[in-house]
Amino acid sequence: MYDLLKGLQVVEAAAFVAGPSCCLYLAQFGAEVIRIDTVGGGPDFRRWPLTDQGDSLYWEGLNKAKKSVAIDLSKPEGRELAVRVAAAPGENAGLFVTNFPVEGFLSYERLKKAREDIICVRVMGWADGRPAVDYTINAALGVPLMTGHPDDPRPVNHVLPAWDLLTGAYAAFSLVSAERARRAGHGGCEVRVPLSDIAAATLANLGQLAEVMTSGADRPRQGNDLFGAFGRDFATADGRRIMIVAITARQWRTLVQTLDLAEAVAALEAELGVSFAADEGERYRHRARLFPLFERAFAERRPEEMAPAFEAEGVCWSTYRSLHEASADAALFAANPVFGRAAHPSGRDYPAPGAAATIPGQTRGPVRAARKLGADTDEVLAERLGLSSAEIGRLHDAGVVAGAPR
Questions:
Q1: Which of 13, 50, 164, 283 has a CA 20 to 30 Å removed from the CA of 23?
Q2: What is the model's pTM?
Q3: DSSP state letters, 324-365
Q4: What CATH code would you report for 9-203+330-402?
């Protein structure tokens, strides 16, 4: 945890990945984030993976370092109360992140009536308001048809919700940018961040849109081959598989020398009239000739034998392992300063990350766990809206709000 955004007061009313990850990043850099949760939990409150007791590890992972106010959003009074929380007064407040629909009780027009200079960052599926998730956006863009082996025509979905995560990060950037503009006197605004636009723009930024439009054809599937450079998985002498990527000339020379392939590669270069060290594209273009040489060389060696040379010269490599195996890697988790311990609502003890960025010279604050649903309801209503204990009590009695379950 860092304090770069200390003082900012952000309200979140969102579920699933993009909106909650946006506010998670803001909280990890010091912003005070208040979640508006529905009484009993929203659509992702019991989302897998679950503990044996049914607590969502997913939910408590994405909602670390946030306060929770539980409101019954099915009641008109509850909806009005949610708007008031989102539009609470204060120079550093009036910052709202949501994935609720454009129209409805959390529309920008409703929010603006409650606070003229409110900033609303709205995460969306499609830009026209249609719902979408990472998997469906990927399917619409053709990404699953780029993935997989050439001899298998089935689409392959990616298990990493890349567009959700990119959208969350872009939404955080958008909110900080809009808040900076408001401080400069430009007032509030609504920023809409659809997954569809993030995904489409990303493929265009990477040149993939231009590639298919100029060539008139899709990029063919190629299994684990790295497009445009030398990279692939290979079997080693002990039956493991290793992923190797050699992009720079230095990485390529080290790889060739470590595998005792200098003579064979030089002969192939002479035959083809190319220099693999000078042009990474040639390594990709002639990979069908190169791969058999490397397959035989890797099959005679164990990863431990090659690791010193690879590490010394910056070759990108790793053996394949499961996440369970990776969890025992101290450099990734136990000894990684990004991670700490916290008292999670589920009662489970496991490493939890703070900010993924590191600021040299600044001390990290302790990791803060997610709060129990509704744990901060009374505090938020009293401090942010100025409600009396009697008014808060009435809201509890009417079922409009709820505290943390005992």
A1: 50
A2: 0.95
A3: HHHTT-TTTTTT-TTEE----TT-----EE--SS--TTSPPP
A4: 3.40.50.10540
